[in-house]
Amino acid sequence: MIELTDIQAARERIRPHIRQTPLIAARPVRQPIEGAPNLYLKLENLQVIGSFKARGAVNKLLSLPTTQVSRGIITASGGNHGMGVAYAGWLVQVPVKIYLPHSTPQAKARKLESWGAEVIYEGAVWDDANRAALACAEQDDLPYFHPFADPLVIGGQGTVGLEVLEALPDVEAIVVAIGGGGLISGISTVVKALKPDTRVIGVEAGGAPTLYESLKAGHLIELAEITTVAGTLAPRRSEQINLDIIRQNVDEIVLITDDDMREAARWLWFELGVAAELSGAAALAAVMRGKVRSDRDLCVLVCGAGTDGVA
């Protein structure tokens, strides 16, 4: 299990290479959200490369010996983690290979290539691409950057939690989208160590309820199919480290639909001028649907940039 001290160390390690993103009050707005009069947004869509994933990837990179990464690094991604790894590789000028499922939007693939990464397509979903990336990492003896089940990656993502608690010390609840579970694993570790009465609420797409179903079953499950179009929220299976942390630290996981995410992305754009991809709007969607309510300070993570929700 990862500790608070690991996340504090990660913050110092990555500080020169990431942005401390804004945390803003979601007001004034034309259409206030019922049940959330004191709503705040942590804008990780303004992070380097457009998502929080830069934090974990840079922490992983800077924790490895230079000789280990000099020949290159490799991962599989639905897009955002790949961008984080591409950015990390760019920082130290080493080759980067990113395996993507064929469902990844072309715009994300082009962005990866613009940062110098080699893009390879494999399979229909992230799990397919991941198997290919792991095989290549073993064959070529390259460091593999797991998007959510690596303690160093989780440590980097957890630095978001440190920033939220510093900016909003009286926060009653923090709402976090879940793909594989790396972000909420890191944030919940921070919150329960420093402010245990603060609720941590996870949000999954109803078309990819990986951890929701795993918690209900009491063990890791692998989904038979993925039906959400929000690819960055869509692994068929999480990992034991994430399930263990989430079981211990996360108060609840709620499910939302793709249409809920589209509605939230449009609200962000038309009310606040914030461009969030579908997964980036997932946490807000849970609040808009009334699945999370608070009369006190409520923080929602906008975790990724994009325009697919308003296009």
Short recap of the structure:
By secondary structure, the protein is of the alpha/beta class. It contains twelve helices and nine strands.
Structure explained in plain terms:
- With 311 residues, the protein is of the alpha/beta class.
- It folds into two domains: 4-52 and 150-302, Rossmann fold (3-Layer(aba) Sandwich); 53-140, Rossmann fold, CATH 3.40.50.1100.
- 43% of the residues lie in helices and 14% in strands.
- The protein is built from twelve helices and nine strands.
- It has helices at residues 4-14, 53-63, 66-69, 80-92, 106-114, 126-140, 151-167, 182-194, 210-217, 240-249, 258-272, 282-288, and strands at residues 23-25, 39-43, 73-76, 96-100, 118-121, 173-177, 199-205, 252-256, 298-302.
- Strands 1-2-9-6-7-8 form a six-stranded mixed beta sheet, sandwiched between helices.
- Strand 6, helix 8 and strand 7 (199-205) form a beta-alpha-beta unit.
- The model has no long low-confidence stretch (mean pLDDT 96).
